[in-house]
Design a protein that fits this description.
alpha+beta; three-stranded antiparallel beta sheet; 2 domains; 138 residues; 6 strands; globular; GMP Synthetase, Chain A, domain 3
């Protein structure tokens, strides 16, 4: 499959896109690096994509397993090298669940399926970084 994404340079380092799904994206650099701070940074979008990709996978899988929870949060901790290009070398995804009687084995299965099979973002990052995950249930 081929995809086309189009971005328009608005002014300076500010770029705008209307995504194929009809949503607006603004990307910009910080003021201290010459941008106008009118949008999120490019790497912030990469990690938003990673969290969204794996998060949607897990919600869908747990829904099919009839697992209920009160809340589900994702935290991502990342390290990148100092030299250019400053690629990410280590990424740890923390899945945090709150609720009563959440079955750990089912959450582990959902996370493993996302990690090993479904999440395109995780697979893409694994090309350059060590990607790990952990599960916390409270």
């Amino acid at each position: 499959m081929k995809y086309e994404y189009s971005f328009q340079n608005v002014k300076g380092m500010h770029f705008y896109s209307r995504t194929p799904s009809g949503h607006d994206i603004h990307i910009d650099a910080s003021k201290d690096t010459g941008g106008s701070d009118t949008g999120a940074r490019p790497m912030e979008y990469m990690f938003a994509g990673l969290a969204g990709c794996t998060g949607v996978d897990i919600v869908m899988i747990l829904s099919k397993m009839h697992v209920e929870y009160d809340s589900f949060d994702i935290k991502i901790f990342a390290e990148r090298r100092e030299e250019e290009p400053k690629i990410y070398t280590n990424i740890n995804i923390v899945y945090e669940f709150k609720g009563k009687d959440i079955p750990l084995e089912k959450v582990e299965r959902a996370a493993k399926l996302s990690y090993d099979k479904y999440c395109t973002a995780i697979a893409t990052f694994r090309g350059t970084a060590e990607v790990t995950y952990e599960i916390k249930i409270n």
